[in-house]
UniProtKB/TrEMBL annotation:
Pfam families: PfkB
Protein name as catalogued: Ribokinase family sugar kinase
Signal peptide: none
Keywords noted in UniProt: Kinase, Transferase
Lineage: Bacteria, Bacillati, Actinomycetota, Actinomycetes, Bifidobacteriales
Residue stretches making up the Carbohydrate kinase PfkB domain: 19-322
Length: 346
């Protein structure tokens, strides 16, 4: 598997690969505390760090992996929006969506004691909009459209539904690919939108918890027997979960499992386990957005799903080692492929 990827570096392409995200962005403020405060109690944070959350992390990873990147969702005006706009410029991400006057972007406060995290969120301009919010978004042949899970549960869901209902987005005629991040809060997603998402036949990228939430929402019965064994049975469980979801969704499924890699299945084919790369867990935030961004970039460049996931696994592993204030940072394409070559030589 690794040798196949190394032999294909780099894939031939006849277009400038572009990743367009319909996901939302906000500002995250992470506060590390010695313990979670009880109601009415005071606790002092040892450190405070700020980063841009949501689909920014996906697009930043895609840009570092060589793709042209566009943010198509709403932006506001105000201090949080200014912070996001600065980060977009620094990462060479073009904002092609609307800018809403007199509304700022949202923010989240994250409290972490090293074991547990708590979130307080306030949604802003990124969650606003109407059915025509994405009417000027016209992906070209070979592009990849990313749909973040955060865009499925507020006013942005109306715009996503309208976009997917356009004739150019239908799987029979579509010339671009769609990569969708599922969510553990799938119970909050409108049933009509969920049906539209399924009919669009995107690449479903998710972790185990998100996959189980999707299976529950679709009334898919999963045999939990392997997970109850003394020896574990994790691989068998992931294999069955990937198979069951792909059968019902009739679409490609990428089931991520951190250092264990990912299980993938194209509808009608067998499940394939793509090995991951063990790394020291020094991060606080998930490397899932890095994996998704790398996957989107590589698909846009013309790589097949198998090779794209393998390199995305490497990018995610390196991003954990290269984290800044606990936030994984995606490596460049050259760093990711060099990492694979090093592992191949071992």
């Amino acid at each position: 598997m690794l040798s196949d990827i190394v032999n294909k570096i780099r894939a031939q392409r006849d277009h400038e690969p572009t990743v367009i995200s319909l996901g939302q962005t906000w500002v995250d403020t992470l506060m590390r505390v010695p313990e979670m405060p009880q109601a009415g109690r005071f606790v002092e944070a040892s450190t405070v760090s700020r980063s841009i959350g949501g689909s920014f992390q996906v697009l930043e990873a895609a840009e570092r992996m060589g793709a042209r990147t566009e943010l198509a969702s709403m932006m506001g005006t105000g201090p949080w929006a200014d912070c996001i706009a600065h980060a977009l410029r620094q990462a060479h991400i073009v904002h092609t969506g609307r800018t809403l006057p007199n509304q700022d972007n949202g923010m989240r406060i994250i409290l972490s004691d090293g074991d547990v995290k708590s979130y307080v969120a306030h949604h802003g301009a990124e969650s606003r909009g109407d059915a025509d919010a994405f009417k000027n978004i016209h992906p070209k042949k070979g592009d990849v459209v990313h749909i973040g899970s955060n865009a499925l549960m507020n006013d942005g869901a109306v715009a996503v539904h309208q976009f997917l209902s356009h004739p150019a987005c239908q799987p029979q005629t579509r010339t671009f690919r769609i990569v969708l991040n599922s969510t553990r809060a799938l119970r909050l997603v409108n049933a009509q939108l969920l049906e539209t998402l399924i009919l669009a036949r995107p690449v479903w990228s998710m972790n185990r918890q998100q996959a189980y939430a999707l299976a529950e929402r679709l009334s898919i019965s999963i045999d939990e027997t392997p997970t109850l064994r003394v020896s574990g049975g994790f691989d068998e469980s992931m294999h069955e979960l990937c198979t069951a979801l792909s059968e019902v969704l009739r679409a490609p499924v990428v089931l991520r499992a951190g250092s264990r890699g990912a299980w993938i299945r194209q509808h009608g084919e067998g499940v394939m386990h793509i090995d991951g790369f063990p790394t020291k867990a020094t991060h606080i935030r998930s490397a899932g957005p890095v994996h998704t961004g790398a996957l989107c970039a590589l698909l846009a460049e013309g790589w097949d799903l198998e090779a794209s996931v393998q390199i995305a696994n490497a990018a995610a592993a390196l991003s954990i080692a290269h984290n800044v204030d606990g936030v994984p940072v995606c490596p460049s394409y050259d760093e990711a492929t060099a990492f694979i070559k090093e592992r191949l030589a071992e």
